[in-house]
Amino acid sequence: MEILTVVLLWAFGLAVVLGFFATKTNFCTMGAVSDVVNIGDTGRMRSWVFAIGLAILGVMGLSLLGLTNTSLIANNDTANPPYLTANFAWPRHILGGLIFGIGMTLGSGCGNKTLVRLGGGNIKSIFVFLAMGVTTYLMIFTNFSYTAFLSWMEPAFIDLSLNDIENQGLGTVIAHFIGTEIESTTTIVAALLGGLLILWAFLSNDFRGSLDNILGGFIVALVVVTAWWVTTGELGQTLLEEAEMMDEQPFALGAQSFTFSQPSGHFLRWVETGFSSSLYTFALMAAFGVVVGSFLYSILARKFRFEWFANWKDFVVHIIGGLLMGIGGVLAMGCTIGQGVTGASTLAMGSFLTVFAIVLGSALTMKIQFYKMVYEEEASFGKALVAGLADMKLLPNSFRKLDKV
């Protein structure tokens, strides 16, 4: 069996596990933000943070045992995407994260949740996936990304290598400023940060009182870390070496783990090329796996249900959400899983910045929707936006035109 096939089968198999348990435990980052904003429940948010903490410790452990080569993640030629590159592209992380956060709220879930819902019979998710695919395709396979965003963003990017900083990993940056050795500093930072995130998760009964929250976070971290082992370990390194000898390298090859900002665009490209085998990417196989895993659980638990749009407005809102997720996900180089867990597990500064922007964009969108629902015609977009920002302590209360509800 060809080594590429083995890697793709790993992607599919791990994603089946992810889809199965994400459906069972209702692991959902948009739902996590909604729980906090609307009812004050932090259980699913802590499940996400628990997954991040575990993934950080898992990647650290693999590196200490010599089972992976994490330097591959910092190289544009060997990673997809290169989370740890020395080029700190902070504007794309902020704007991309905000756009993605808005989109996932309008689309009723992030890229992973869209696939999970699709596997459970939600027909709406097919349209969200395809809408997301259109803009993802444009961002990846055309000049749209550069023309619309990168052309004016790039001058603000910070090249850390000009200051003799090898990459944007928190451990590397801290080691540079305090004058310590990079590897040991990275290990200490990973152990402290991962441990603190896990501790924070368990401090609330919202999290520890729910087996599903614990299981969901554990499974997400497990599959992300295992995927890193596959693509940056012996198997992945051998594949990269073999690829250098190929006349035509497979598309989107490299050190990577789970991200769901790419699959929809890869899917449309795959269809466009007549289902070319060169488009069997890690991300595409992961998407197929999540749908299969979700479908299996939904059938076994007898929860498979067809769901359609409530009305035309519902349809339009979901399509807009999908379009925005495609733009934001590629611009930010990842989604709630791709940056929120996979990227964060590498300690990349851009990943944490993206997570913050996604949560902010999602929470603010929910606030605006809430005020427009409560105040109806009185609540213009501007008034709802200011009220939402005031609720989130980002503007003084004196600025608001709508009373807090």
UniProtKB/TrEMBL annotation:
GO terms for cellular component: plasma membrane. Its main location: membrane. InterPro entries: Sulf_transp_TsuA/YedE (IPR007272). Keywords: Cell inner membrane, Cell membrane, Membrane, Transmembrane, Transmembrane helix, Transport. It is found in: Cell inner membrane. The keyword Thylakoid does not apply. It is a multi-pass membrane protein. The keyword Transmembrane helix applies. It comes from the Bacteria. It holds the Pfam family Sulf_transp. The chain crosses the membrane at residues 6-27, 48-74, 94-115, 127-153, 173-202, 214-231, 279-300, 315-341, 347-366. Belongs to the TsuA/YedE (TC 9.B.102) family. This is Uncharacterized protein. It comes from Cocleimonas flava.
